[in-house]
Specification:
With 200 residues, the chain is mostly beta strands. 0% of the residues lie in helices and 56% in strands. The chain has no helices and 15 strands. The strands form five sheets. The protein has a four-stranded antiparallel β-sheet, with no helix packed on it. A hairpin with a 2-residue loop joins β7 (101-107) and β8 (110-115). The two termini are 34 Å apart.
Length: 200
């Protein structure tokens, strides 16, 4: 199955004619251009999520797998606006869910996946493992819903016990980071979870 990457561009054009004594008006026209097609999944893709810096794409599919895509170009100034076909490659596969992946979200340096198996898994790459993209670990499974998880949202916690450390919010003891996770399910419930993440 395919993932298509599109770029939104804007072009300017002027009115063909204008009333006497008035300037032609400049109008903006937006256009979508296909810049890449990513093909690795063997089944339908249900969910996509981007890392906070836009350099890593996660894709979840019906075959229970999550593919991790990274840009091949190591230029830190490269962003998604500049990618062309072939500039992203699969660097890892995350497995653990018993049924299809239905939703994904990213918060801080965590990936969260919701599944038809009624659970949410929280994935983290150990610090210092940038080159070993297959080293993601599932350190928590949120259980409690009785039907498939259809949507996810998450946010870093800002309170008096949390210290802003760049793009992480680290507890006063420096050993954990925290976030709130919101899960919506076909069981009609929305659940809110507080997750403390070890900084490993």
């Amino acid at each position: 199955m395919k993932i298509k990457v599109w770029k939104l561009t804007s072009t300017h054009h002027y009115q063909a004619a204008a009333p006497a004594g008035k300037k032609k008006k400049k109008k903006q026209k937006q256009q979508h251009l296909l810049v890449a097609t990513l093909e690795k999944h063997k089944s339908a893709v249900n969910a996509l999520a981007l890392s906070n810096d836009g350099r890593v794409l996660y894709s979840g599919a019906c075959d229970r797998s999550i593919l991790v895509w990274e840009k091949e170009d190591e230029d830190p100034n490269l962003n998604l606006d500049n990618i062309q076909g072939g500039h992203m490659r699969v660097v890892g596969v995350l497995r653990g869910h018993a049924k299809a992946i239905l939703c994904l979200t990213v918060v801080l340096d965590l990936l969260l996946s919701g599944s038809a198996d009624n659970t949410v898994r929280i994935w983290k790459k150990p610090q210092g493992s940038f080159k070993d993209s297959s080293s993601y670990a599932c350190f928590a499974v949120l259980q409690g819903h009785t039907r498939p998880i259809k949507c996810l949202a998450a946010a870093a916690i800002h309170d008096n016990n949390i210290i802003d450390d760049g793009n992480k919010f680290v507890s006063g003891n420096g050993n954990t980071t925290s976030c709130l996770v919101y899960t919506g399910s076909l069981d009609h419930d929305i659940r809110v979870w507080k997750v403390s993440v070890p900084l490993f």
